[in-house]
Specification:
- With 345 residues, this protein is an alpha/beta fold.
- The protein has two domains: 93 residues, no CATH class; 219 residues, 2-enoyl-CoA Hydratase, Chain A, domain 1 (Alpha-Beta Complex).
- 33% of the residues lie in helices and 22% in strands.
- The chain has eleven helices and 14 strands.
- Strands 1, 2, 6, 7, 8, 9, 12 and 13 form an eight-stranded antiparallel sheet that branches. A six-stranded mixed sheet has the order 3-4-5-10-11-14, sandwiched between helices.
- InterPro entries: ClpP/crotonase-like_dom_sf, Tail-specific_protease.
């Protein structure tokens, strides 16, 4: 979950950046930046009470003395995230990203077909398989412009493409492929899939004590988070909330990709196929740090519409490394999806 930054805050930060440029090669600027990062973490990070901040701050303060300039000192972000075990947090400064040491899946964990498709940087696509099955590839996507209007525009294009297939073909069931969805912004993803979900709660946030502290819902095409419309589409035609849907995941499905899968938990006529997801199911918020940098900080847990938390999305039918993106009808995940769609109730 991402929160849009108020325009006033952006203007203030931009003004501060002009005055801060003189500082960013000094030890002072290093201290200012890391002090602010610690402040954000100590206030928002969901596991903040399990971190020895005094010890960690002292360690980082000593380490900062070895760096000749501000940019090189940003390597200490990795130290902070590693010690705090903040494996779903990131800092963004200019065009650079900084995170902890993440020992995630490697090439050997994927099929040759998945790797072949991955290097092409897969984009959203929707098409008909075998003249009767709707296929939607929903990859990772993120946008610097997270304004409601821009997210609407991004989602509407995808929604309209799905609607064209819906309106012009006799589709017996749908397959939503999240095998390349490693995260980003869930708002346009879920908005584009509105017809399949309908007017309902789609996911929620839970705090460390297991209490639901926020719910995201769809209503008449609007993506509503805590009473605020943050994205929307203009819906057309009948809903598909009763249609059969197969959701495909694998170990690359992470973060907002997992939220998108989670939105289908509790939905009737739905099955999950493939591999268990990556396990980045913490709710992240955007917070400003200093000098124009910002971070995504894990502040809660992602739950389904019924408040159920999933460390991973575990498939109903396991399929491991049997992908075929050259011929989707030969893909074992697709084959299992078709079995589900065509099975007699």
């Amino acid at each position: 979950m991402k929160k849009n930054l108020p325009l006033l805050l952006i203007l203030i930060v931009s003004f501060q950046n002009l005055n801060a440029q003189k500082l960013i090669t000094s030890q002072d600027s290093m201290q200012v930046f890391h002090d602010q990062l610690f402040k954000v973490m100590k206030k928002n990070y969901i596991y903040k009470d399990s971190v020895n901040w005094t010890e960690l701050e002292s360690k980082v303060e000593q380490n900062l003395k070895q760096y000749p300039d501000f940019k090189s000192s940003l390597k200490e972000i990795t130290t902070i995230f590693d010690v705090a075990k903040a494996d779903h947090c990131k800092v963004y400064y200019n065009d650079d990203e900084f995170s902890g040491t993440y020992s995630g899946p490697t090439e050997k964990d994927f099929s040759e077909q998945w790797l072949k498709k991955f290097v092409t940087n897969p984009e959203f696509e929707v098409k008909v398989l075998d003249n009767q099955y709707g296929y939607i590839l929903m990859p990772a996507m993120s946008f610097k412009d997270r304004s409601t209007e821009n997210l609407h525009q991004q989602a509407q294009v995808m929604y309209d493409a799905i609607n064209t297939i819906k309106a012009s073909n006799n589709i017996t069931g749908w397959i939503i492929d999240l095998r390349f969805n490693s995260g980003g912004d869930d708002m346009p993803m879920i908005s584009a899939l509105y017809d399949f979900l309908g007017d309902t709660d789609v996911w929620s946030e839970m705090n460390l004590n297991g209490k639901r502290v926020g719910t995201v819902k769809l209503k008449k095409g609007k993506y509503i988070n805590k009473s605020n419309t943050v994205a929307y589409i203009n819906p057309k035609g009948a809903l598909l909330d009763k249609a059969k849907v197969a959701v495909i995941t694998n170990i690359a499905t992470a973060s907002s990709g997992e939220i998108t899968a989670m939105a289908f938990k509790g939905r009737d006529n739905t099955i999950f196929i493939g591999e268990k997801s990556n396990g980045k199911t913490t709710t992240n918020y955007i917070k400003m740090v200093a000098f124009g940098a910002y971070m995504t900080v894990s502040a809660g847990f992602d739950c389904d519409r019924n408040g159920v938390y999933y460390e991973h999305i575990t498939p109903d039918i396991a399929v491991v490394k049997q992908d075929n993106f050259d011929d989707l009808l030969s893909d074992r995940n697709i084959q299992e999806a078709i079995k589900f769609i065509t099975a007699t109730p």
